[in-house]
């Protein structure tokens, strides 16, 4: 296999997000720069009663078939996004060699609502009320397993659970499966659906969530001087990865090239990022180096940008140190909230769309940067600017850091 054969392309994308469940609606939502945060009936009466939810889509109808009853919400989101991505790539599971197709879907928590419901039934009605499907519905790898079943993908199937870096880590693993020759096609991304009172309360109790209950739409404000925490969201995004040589051979379309990836671990704290950001920066440096670029050749940064005080401060310092030429920065969580394991995959899709369309979406709710942040953040309106290269950052609890480097196709 030659070096050219190792070049990896994104050939298909699918997404189900609070900003939209198809590419055009999602992109329009990002470019509008309006938050999707809303009060949620299920969270009424809690200290934090708002979130960014997927609305306006009947998941059961979208999934279809007789097996939908055995799927938790996060699995349905993943399956819808995966089918979109495969169709977008111009591939048909009826025609491919399933033994050469891999699935890598990052999920941080899994079917927590299924687990909670099962616990309630056990307490109220005893053991016979607990569903025999509780375990296969709640486990995080259920998304990868159900997607593999639906697509007839019999190659490697993985479910990385690296918190908020899971979706980006899944895409990085997908690239490795292609580069090592284990697969010819990889369906990779992330999914999460944990908008339950228990999980939201737990995040609120640890001080991670914004408390702007009087203004939910203004709560997620990455890099803003007055940010006070993230807004929890849900969703899924999936990409199809193939070697560029294979794409050419079948007459397919490359939407972008996944030129490099980098992964590190802070080894510092269960939830807080390494305060100086040097280990996270090493992941970014590894992705840029693998892509064969100098830092000053990176034209755009899609930031993790959670809207939490510690993470944004760390990332702002990282960007200003490693990219002193000040490439334009965006952060989709201002619009879609923090979708946890899905975040890195959603942001990877947004990065590819920026490269394709020559437009950088604005950061929602960013009115004023702290005086010590030397960043070129896109605000208020989309910025029309054609960039050739971009890096997407993902950082997760446990100190997991992943960076993805994309080149315009």
Detailed description of the structure:
- By secondary structure, the protein is an alpha/beta fold.
- Helix content is 33%, strand content 19%.
- It is built from 13 helices and 15 strands.
- Helix 11 links the parallel strand 9 and strand 10.
- Helix 3 crosses helix 6 and helix 7 crosses helix 13.
- The longest helix is centred in the first third of the chain and has 16 residues.
- It is globular and about 65 Å long.
- The N terminus is likely disordered.
| Spans where pLDDT lies below 50 across 5 or more residues | 1-5
What's the rounded overall pLDDT mean? 96
Structural class: alpha/beta
User: What's the story with the biggest beta sheet?
Assistant: 11 strands, mixed
Helix content: 25-40%
Strand elements, count: 15
**What gross morphology would you assign?**
globular
Strand content: 15-25%
Radius of gyration: 20 Å
**Helical segment tally?**
13
End-to-end CA span: 21 Å
In the sheet with the most strands, the strands line up as 5-4-6-7-1-8-15-14-9-10-12
Order of helices and strands: EHEEHHEHHHEHEHEHEHEHEHHEEEEE
């Amino acid at each position: 296999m030659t070096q050219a054969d190792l070049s990896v392309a994104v050939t298909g994308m699918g997404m189900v997000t609070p900003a939209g469940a198809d590419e055009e609606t999602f992109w329009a939502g990002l470019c509008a720069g309006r938050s999707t945060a809303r009060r949620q009936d299920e969270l009424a009466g809690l200290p934090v009663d708002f979130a960014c939810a997927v609305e306006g889509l009947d998941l059961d109808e979208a999934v279809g078939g007789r097996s939908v009853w055995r799927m938790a919400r996060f699995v349905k989101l993943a399956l819808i996004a995966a089918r979109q991505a495969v169709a977008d790539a111009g591939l048909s599971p009826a025609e491919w060699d399933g033994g050469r197709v891999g699935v890598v879907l990052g999920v941080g928590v899994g079917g927590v609502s299924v687990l909670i419901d099962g616990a309630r039934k056990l307490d109220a009605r005893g053991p016979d009320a607990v569903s025999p499907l509780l375990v296969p519905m709640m486990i995080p790898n259920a998304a990868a397993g159900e997607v593999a079943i639906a697509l007839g993908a019999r190659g490697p199937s993985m479910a990385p659970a690296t918190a908020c870096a899971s979706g980006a880590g899944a895409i990085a693993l997908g690239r490795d499966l292609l580069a090592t020759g284990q697969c010819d096609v990889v369906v990779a991304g992330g999914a999460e659906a944990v908008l339950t009172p228990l999980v939201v309360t737990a995040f609120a109790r640890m001080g991670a969530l914004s408390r702007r209950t009087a203004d939910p739409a203004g709560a997620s404000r990455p890099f803003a001087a007055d940010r006070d925490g993230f807004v929890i969201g849900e969703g899924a995004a999936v990409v199809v990865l193939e070697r560029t040589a294979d794409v050419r051979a079948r007459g397919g379309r490359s939407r972008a090239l996944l030129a490099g990836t980098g992964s590190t671990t802070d080894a510092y704290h269960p939830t807080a990022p390494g305060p100086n950001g040097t280990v996270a920066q090493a992941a970014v440096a590894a992705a840029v180096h693998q892509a064969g670029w100098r830092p000053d050749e990176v034209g755009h940064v899609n930031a993790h940008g959670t809207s939490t005080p510690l993470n944004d401060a760390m990332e702002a310092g990282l960007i200003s140190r490693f990219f002193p030429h000040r490439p334009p920065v965006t952060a989709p969580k201002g619009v879609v909230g923090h979708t946890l394991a899905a975040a890195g995959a959603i942001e990877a899709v947004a990065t590819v769309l920026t490269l394709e369309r020559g437009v950088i979406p604005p950061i929602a709710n960013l009115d004023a940067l702290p005086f010590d942040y030397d960043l070129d953040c896109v605000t208020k309106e989309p910025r029309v600017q054609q960039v050739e290269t971009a890096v997407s950052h993902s950082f997760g609890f446990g100190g997991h850091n992943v960076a993805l480097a994309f080149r315009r196709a």
